[in-house]
Amino acid sequence: MDEPDGTLIGFGGAVVRSVEELPEPAGEGAACFFGVDSELCRRFGSSNEGAAVFIRSASARMRPWTRRERPGAIDVGVLRGSASEMMEETLLLGAGLVARGFVPVAVGCDHTVSYAHALGVCRERRATYVYLDAHLDLGLHDDRQQPALHNGNFIGALVRSGRFEQVVNVGARAWTTHDEVYEAQTHVTILRSASLDALAFLRGRDVYVSLDVDVLDPTFVPNLCCREPFGFTPRELLSVMEWLRRHCHVLGADVSELAPDAQHGHTAEIAMRCIHELIGPRGGPS
């Protein structure tokens, strides 16, 4: 999508710029989006190759809202290549954008993109990793058979890295999360509801926020890669993101696990609106 003057518009209505052309961040909390358009390490869920381009195209029409509410948002393009190349480039790009004063947001396919991006964004700063996800992604059931990093165990790898002061899940509800093997683990703080009161202990913290779109109920977002019933409504998710923006210092973020579907382009707008709500001036208006 482009403006009448030829300006290209991308993720969530953000203006497209090359990394070399990036301006100074426009105030506190300027989001800088980039896509990772191939799956990195999928083991669970249906394939969603091309999800970043789908989200970019479907959410560009948000531009009238973004121009007014998040004028500093930038889109620097979509990464393509082998999984190993994109893992490295994601880490380096996130670290570079933080150094330049932006809040980088990776828009990926499988949730493993969060592993590389979070390590890059938080390379120089310990933070709390907060992920909204119907699954815990700890890999406790099958890591002996599948020790390699994938979208079902990368949280365990983040915990073991020692790079984050705390790992917090919001919204775990898959039936396996109630299995004894998960109930016994103590490495992740689990908030199963969208209660804002339960978030109070995060007030004032530096946070990295990861959105696996399957935290939402499939009634609202049918094109999920791993559907789970009884999820959040878009309004509940928006409220959680708003609370985190108002009360925490958001260093970076990512969004993943939305499948391309031309009949459900509005779901990309739901995801990007929630990410926009996360990033902006602390205590500022929506």
Quick tags:
286 residues; alpha/beta; Arginase, Chain A; 9-stranded parallel beta sheet; 8 helices; 28% helix; Agmatinase; Ureohydrolase
Overview of the structural elements:
The chain is an alpha/beta fold and 286 residues long. The protein has one domain (11-278): Arginase, Chain A (3-Layer(aba) Sandwich). The protein is 28% helix and 17% strand. The protein contains eight helices and nine strands. A nine-stranded parallel β-sheet has the order 1-3-2-4-9-8-5-6-7, with helices on both faces. Helix 5 (154-161) links the parallel strand 5 and strand 6. Helix 3 packs parallel to helix 4 (113-121) and helix 7 (234-247) packs parallel to helix 8 (266-278). The longest helix has 17 residues, at 83-99.
User: Topology as H/E string?
Assistant: EEHHEHEHEHEHEEHEH
Biggest sheet character? 9 strands, parallel
Please, what is the CATH homologous superfamily?
Ureohydrolase domain
Count of runs of 4 or more consecutive helical residues? 8
Amino- and carboxy-terminal Cα gap: 24 Å
Strand tally is: 9
Shape: globular
State which percent range the strand residues make up: 15-25%
Q: What would the average pLDDT be, to the nearest integer?
A: 92
Q: Regions with pLDDT < 50 over 5+ consecutive residues?
A: none
How many domains? The number is 1
Helix content: 25-40%
CATH topology category name: Arginase, Chain A
CATH class annotation: Alpha Beta
Question: Main sheet: which strands, in order across?
Answer: 1-3-2-4-9-8-5-6-7
Query: Which structural class do you get from the secondary structure elements?
Result: alpha/beta
CATH-derived architecture: 3-Layer(aba) Sandwich
Return Rg in Å: 17 Å
Keywords: Hydrolase, Metal-binding
Organism: Cystobacter fuscus (strain ATCC 25194 / DSM 2262 / NBRC 100088 / M29)
Protein name: Agmatinase
InterPro entries: Ureohydrolase, Ureohydrolase_dom_sf
